[in-house]
Every structure is written in C-alpha cells, then in structure tokens.
Amino acid sequence: MIRITRKVFTDLSIFMIGLGLLIGFVFPFFVSWMGIPREYVFKPWFFIACVTAGIVVGALNISLARAVVGSRLKLLGNRMQYVTRNLKAIKAGQENVTCDAEQCQIKVDSEDEIGHSTAAFNSLVETLFESIETENSLATFNQLLGSQLALHDLTDKALQQFMLHTGSAAGAVLIEYEGTLHVSVSLGIKNVTSLIESDHVKNALRNERRIQISLPDDVQVEGVLTDFRPREVIIEPVLYKEVILGLIILATTKNYSNDALTRLNLFGQGLALALHNALLFDRLERLAALDSLTGIYNRRFGMTRLHEEFGRSLRMNAPIGVLMMDLDHFKQVNDTYGHLTGDRVLLRLARVARSVLREGDILVRYGGEEFLAILPGASRHDVTDIGERLRRKVSETSIEEGDESIKVTISLGGISFPENDVPNETELVNRADQALYLAKESGRNCVMMAGGS
C-alpha cells in the first residue's frame, strides 16, 4: 500500500475520502448510462450532491474503522505498554509483579486477522511470563541450595522444590555414596528401601538417562507409593560432569506437562552442582573428624560429640558413661618392635573396642595410646561391665610380629553421670582420667570407677 503520511488511519482517511470524491464525480455518468435523461443528471447541484455524499460516506467509513479496528489496536497497544512496565518492574527487582489474563491478555472475540493477532499476543505474554516465572524459580532454587552444605538439609529442601514446581505428590532423593545407593530423603513414599532394588532405578543408573513410566488405571503399585495411585513416575539421574551422584524419583496423579519436564531439566542442573559441593563437604568433614590411623573420631570431634551427648543427658534426665583407656607399657612395644608395629597395635585396639561397644556408643582416639569411649544411657553397672569385657577381649588378642606373638593389656577408668554429679562434660572426662590413673597405680590391666572401684 502506498504510504502518504506516517499514520495509518490518516492515510486510510485520505484514500477513503478520495474514493468518495471519485465515486461522487462518476455517479452522474453512471446514472446517465442507466437511462436517466442527461438534462436531469448533468446539473451542477447534482454533481455537488453526489460528491458531498461520497465525502460523507468516506468520513463515516473512517469513523467506523476507527471505532471497530482502532479501538482494538489501541487496546492491544495499551496492554503492550502494561506488559512492558511489568517487565521493567521485574528487571528492577520488584516483587509481587503478576500478569494474569484479566490484566495483560485480551479477549479473542473475532476470527479474522485482528483475532489472530490478539491470540498471538496472548500466547506471547503467557510464554514470556512463564519463562520469567521459571527463571525466578530457578534463581530461588539455586540460591536456596547454594546456602546448604549439610547433605540431608540440602536434599530435603531440593525435593520439596522439585515436587512444588513439577506438581508431584510424592518423591525421593537417592544418593550414590561409596558405590552404594542410599535414601537421603523421601516424601509420600511407603516403602523407601524397595526403590533401591527397583529394576527401573537400576536401568536409570546403568543408562544414565531419565526413565518416565506411565501407569494405566489397571496397573497396581501396592507397597511403593502411599495415599494415592500414581499416574506417572519419573526417575531422573543427577549427573555432575558425567558422573552419577544420585537419583530423583517423582510421582504424580496426572501426566507431567512439558513445562514440568523443562523445570526438572533446569533444576536438575542446579541440584547436581549443589549435591557435588555437599558431598565434597561431607567427605572433608568426615576426614576432619576422623583419626587418620584408626579411622575413629579424633579428639576435637570426639569432645564435640561428648558435649552434645552430655547436653542430651541433662535434657532427658538420662545417664551417660565415659571410659578412658590406655595401653599398658606401650612405649616398650614401640622400643622393642618399632613404631610401625606400635601403629598396628593401636589399630587392633580400635577394632577390638568397636566390636565390644554397643550400637550408638562413640569411640575416640584421645591422644597417643589413650582412647575415650562415650556411652550414652550407660549406668555405673553398664560402664563397669563394658570396661571389663573390653579389658578381657584386649588381653585375649595377640598380634603376630614375625615369629613372635605380641600381647598387650589396657587399663581403664570409668564414670557414670548422674551417679557421679559433675557440672559439665570436661569434669566428666577429668574424673574418668583420675580413675584411669588409679588403675595404672593399682597394677594395670584393670578397671577402676570414679567414686570407688
């Protein structure tokens, strides 16, 4: 179309009025051709009337075009400006910015080009704000996970976010640790351990690829998911630099949408990095807590655990016991057989002690050849019994060194709280250490209890 001005409706007005003038000028000739006598037609007043009518019709057409088409275009323009202001507000970091159908979109009430343009605009706005919502959700997700280094807390928050943004009703996070899968956290799962043995889980691990399982209404999955029948289950490997760190398992009562799968892809990448950092932190924390020779807790971490257990004992009004133990004549072993053999003796003592201690007891290398056993819930009788069993087990153990068999003994000092009233865990250890000193003074290879033998 030939443009005259920079305004479409102005151009349209010019053309339509021009068309009206042309029609008004041609109309008398047309009427004459139709058989009306020329003396009635070719009169100045008739030409003026026809031209005026053409101009009036052209003006009316322009008014109708502005009312019908212009109003729609103006509405479209206003909504575009509104969407633009919202986008600028989002870019500026303002919160609670929404763009629902009533505010940003336009009702499609025609099937012509205007209707198609309106539908395209609505689709663009919907897609744009879904993209922004996904981007904001991803940023929040990554920020949330980035602040977590504790493995359980990380996976717990991650699973909640995955379920929220994918519309899942149940889920679990499995962690691959030292070649074995472990359930880190689960929500809505009835039989968590069965997931690890699932063939689908094994296939996802083997192929390092998502498995999406659709379950028809006639398929039963009793014993796995609870409170609802899943319609679809997703098993998603978590990969960091092509290494599997774990699996995300999600289940829903309806089919997953493309948007949910897109968010799963995006969130999975963030979880992979966060999970890698958490696992690395967990390994470093374990290394920092363990004695390098014996693999049991070192003194610093052991005293932290004792502080926690003593506090729990006070809160729950429950007993707690402590055993201090020391290898008898350990310097003589080192001088006779060397420090490597001495290390083997210490390692054997740690293994024997762990075999005698109960589940939940804590073994600590206190320093050199001294060990500390923290015994939650142990009364004076329990501490004495465990100490005697440990003393006998060590005395019955031998370490082969060439043709010789090395036998060692230990001396032990014990205490139980609250049977012995102490103000804090430091004094608890001091009293056990004093009892150990008495055991040494009494001839070694025996157990002495604080407050009496």
Q: How would you summarize what this structure contains?
A:
The chain is α+β, with helices and mostly antiparallel strands and 453 residues long. It contains 14 helices and 12 strands.
What can you see in these coordinates?
With 453 residues, the chain is an alpha+beta fold. 56% of the residues lie in helices and 17% in strands. The chain is built from 14 helices and 12 strands. It has helices at 8-33, 38-41, 44-91, 101-104, 113-146, 151-166, 192-196, 199-207, 258-289, 299-316, 330-337, 339-356, 380-395, 425-441; strands at residues 170-177, 180-187, 211-214, 232-240, 243-252, 320-327, 362-367, 370-376, 398-401, 404-407, 410-417, 447-449. The protein has a 5-stranded antiparallel β-sheet with strand order 2-1-5-4-3. The chain has a 5-stranded mixed β-sheet with strand order 7-8-6-11-12, sandwiched between helices. Strands 9-10 form a two-stranded antiparallel ribbon. Helix 14 (425-441) links the parallel strand 11 and strand 12 (447-449). The longest helix has 48 residues, at 44-91.
What are the SSEs and their pairings?
Blueprint: H1 8-33, H2 38-41, H3 44-91, H4 101-104, H5 113-146, H6 151-166, E1 170-177, E2 180-187, H7 192-196, H8 199-207, E3 211-214, E4 232-240, E5 243-252, H9 258-289, H10 299-316, E6 320-327, H11 330-337, H12 339-356, E7 362-367, E8 370-376, H13 380-395, E9 398-401, E10 404-407, E11 410-417, H14 425-441, E12 447-449
Parallel strand pairs: 11-12
Antiparallel strand pairs: 1-2, 1-5, 3-4, 4-5, 6-8, 6-11, 7-8, 9-10
Helix pairs in contact: 1-3, 3-5, 5-6, 5-9, 6-9, 11-12, 12-13
